[in-house]
Design brief:
mainly alpha, Arc Repressor Mutant, subunit A, 4 helices, 11% strand, Transcriptional regulator, DUF2087
Length: 101
């Protein structure tokens, strides 16, 4: 990642995460939202299947609006959902914030 992109990512995370690592708010700007979502989903294990309640509990560690964040994980290609189970997708399939202006 280039220095400008790294700096952008760090500044967004600094602006939206408190000292405890919880989200202060969900960014409304798409690029910033994707930076935050990518950070969150990277905390999940690869190739592990999560139940909906497990994903909800994971998200609640960061923000109370787990429904919105869970939906954003799916909409932006970070996770697949099938029969109420969730699995993290390969990074190459994620919506890439680095490509947005």
């Amino acid at each position: 990642m280039t220095t400008n992109l790294e700096n952008y990512q760090k500044s967004v995370l600094h602006a939206f995460l408190n000292k405890e690592g919880r989200l202060k708010s969900i960014p409304s700007q798409k690029k910033k939202k994707l930076v935050v979502l990518e950070y969150l989903v990277q905390q999940l294990e690869d190739n592990k299947t999560y139940s909906e309640s497990q994903i909800n509990e994971f998200i609640k560690k960061y923000h109370e609006d787990f429904c919105t964040i869970r939906r954003e994980f799916i909409v932006n290609g970070y996770m697949n959902r099938e029969d109420g189970n969730y699995i993290k997708r390969d990074e190459s399939l994620w919506t890439n914030w680095k490509e947005l202006k």
